[in-house]
Amino acid sequence: MTAPRLEIDLDAIEHNTRILVDRLAPRGIRVTGVSKATLGSPGVAAAMLRGGAVGIGDSRVENLARLQDAGVATPLTLIRSPMLSQVEHVVRTAHRSLETETVVLEALSAAAARWHITHEVVLMVELGDLREGVDAADVVELARSASRLPGLELAGLGTNLACQSGVIPDQEKMDELSRLAERVESACGARLSIVSGGNSANLEWALSTPDVGRVDELRLGESILLGTEPLQRRPIDGLDTRAFTLVAEVIEAKVKPAQPWGGIAQAAFGEQDLRTGSGSIRQVILALGRQDVDPRGLTPPPGIGVLGMSSDHLVLDVGDHEVSVGDELRFELDYSALVRAATSPFVTAVERGGSEA
């Protein structure tokens, strides 16, 4: 089988989705599965839907189009504000999108009217993480404007935390979102169908608070895919943390000095080799590079250490392991490594399990 490859366990993804859906349902919170880390994989999206997700979100309209073309029948949400150059594509592909800018809302309205489509919008509020979001003081006016635009339906309000600055989605932040939702409803005279509290970083709050307020949706990616929570990267009890495995092939295996020799300057990516010790080591090189994966997010097999990585070579100290050219080594991944591997054209995705795989 070809390498490098990303092996994907669809049954694990379905399991993780179902566990989270079942835990959140008694609190009145629905789950939108986020497929962006897997390049909008239809197999992954289908596994999330089998697990109980009510829809699929992705930050790239191209990924949503892939799902649409594959016949994934579910509401599709663009979870990044559209580029003006893509509004036509957006209204024809996504059922709804997350929005912050008046000019984009106006462009979506015009595009939706041209195609005789109603496009739902969720207005995003800035609550401190300093990524996307309109100022809380301006959200009511933006909601009024959006609700008047033809071809658009003001579906809801949302926020995003912990992605840019690591700001924790706590009770104070979520209470503020609930209050803003009620202010928007009062100003616009209609009840919002979505109050989207955020992403996988919201799980600790959502599963422990006695009062979720108006929050009725979370957009979950990392927790479903990797079984971990993003705030501390801890495994979530009951979830499978091995839905993804990266497999790479050895192209060189030699005994080499433990330390380089000669004058030392910057390496290809400005980082120094992570070598320690003296004498000789068993060094192997894999056909895997920074074009394919984030080396900081790789966990090698026990007893093997990552020494460094260039564009196309991953260098390992294999310790006492007997490793030969042509052998394959398997790695666990964190979210950063998964995103890079899943979107590299040089890494083949191999999906296993799932009734529709």
UniProtKB/TrEMBL annotation:
Named cofactor requirement(s): pyridoxal 5'-phosphate
One protein family per Pfam: Ala_racemase_N
UniProt entry keywords in alphabetical sequence: Isomerase, Pyridoxal phosphate
GO MF term list: alanine racemase activity; pyridoxal phosphate binding
Record-level GO cellular component terms: cytosol
Record's keyword annotation contains Isomerase: yes
Domain Alanine racemase N-terminal stretches: 8-224
InterPro entries, A to Z: Ala_racemase, Ala_racemase_N, PLP-binding_barrel
PANTHER family hit by this protein: ALANINE RACEMASE, LYSINE RACEMASE
Protein name stated in the entry: Putative amino acid racemase
Origin species: Compostimonas suwonensis
